[in-house]
Amino acid sequence: MSKHGMKAIILVFVLVLAACGSQKPNELNWQVNDFTFVNQDEQPVGLSDLKGKVWLASFIFTNCTTVCPPMTANMSLIQRDLQEQGLQAQLVSFSVDPEVDKPQVLKEYAQKFGADFNNWNFLTGYSQQEIEEFAKESFKTPVQKTAASDQVTHGTSFFLVDQKGVIVKKYSGSVNTPYEEIVQDVKALLN
Q1: Is 62 part of a structural domain of the chain?
Q2: Helix (H), strand (E), coil (C) string for 41-64
Q3: Residue 131 lies in a domain
Q4: Per-residue CA distances from 85 to 5, 80, 117 (Å)
Q5: What is the pLDDT of residues 140-164, one digit of tens each?
């Protein structure tokens, strides 16, 4: 085989490998149930507003003393990375403590982490039972508030949702958050 023929084969192999690396994530295939909640500016935000967009979801609450501050800080870093790469994705943080987390409380909390509200909504405006059922049914993640504590038990994953409202992948949101992988997966969904 000639040198040029070998180079052509290597080039094709490299291109095939590169294409494999940018496959659209589709590990989970969980449909998000329809919703319309209220954001930090007291504006309605629902699944219909997110259709056609790629988004990353999390579950947090403002008086959390453990996992929520690092989760929100990690989401803020992801927001920055997405903006630096010019990727148009939405971020959505659902409060798991809606009785405490009124819109203004969420707004003040988000500002501590430098959240850019142009593409990051902090949602509330539902009952405790509604958010527990929504998290379980759509995101297959636990949310539970007990009368014995002001803390809420909840999952710490970030969820990647495609343009059709389908959850395609989840990641650790509190420790060892894979920033680069998330950005690459967002990019793959956008292409």
Answers
A1: yes
A2: CCCEEEHHHHCCCEEEEEEECCCC
A3: yes
A4: 36, 9, 18
A5: 999 999 888 899 999 999 999 999 9
